[in-house]
Amino acid sequence: MPSALVLGLRAAQFAMAMVILGLSAYVANWYNVDTLTTSPSQINWLLFSSLFTIISVAYLELTPRFAPRASHPYVSIALEFCNVLFYFAGFIALSVFISKLLFCRGTVCGAAKADVAFGVMEFLLWGVSAVLMGKDVFKMGFNFRKSGRQAPLEGPQMKESQLA
């Protein structure tokens, strides 16, 4: 993948995760402090997803640069697709939750609706980066030498016989 495009995607993913973290924390705090009920699981899921995104972006960007032996393309693509699924589930669940409320007004409701909108944008960002990463990983196949790595459990090279 082009480095500038990936870096831009990662920066946008990190920024959106911070926004979702703030919005979800605000709504969860309102539920836990101002009402008699705990925060909904849909809000808690988006809190988890944003924290998972921060950890994922750190792994995807820092590991290949500073610990390349700990980086594996299949782990990277798994993180990408997990984030896609987490945000898809999160924004769908929260939008259904908001649609079932009897009333929705005030700053908390606005924050929850914004949380859905940012969840959709995060889903799209992770979807684009997952497709780009998947294309690169499956184009590379099992040949890890293109990325400068040795294939795991590779035995010694065979020598030709001197019989002729």
UniProtKB/TrEMBL annotation:
The UniProt record lists the keyword Transmembrane helix: yes
Cellular compartments per GO CC: membrane
InterPro entries: Marvel
Keywords, ordered alphabetically: Membrane, Transmembrane, Transmembrane helix
Subcellular location: Membrane
Topology class, membrane: Multi-pass membrane protein
Transmembrane segments: 12-31, 43-62, 74-98, 118-138
Domain MARVEL: from-to ranges: 7-132
Identification of the protein by name: Membrane-associating domain-domain-containing protein
Organism annotation: Pseudomassariella vexata
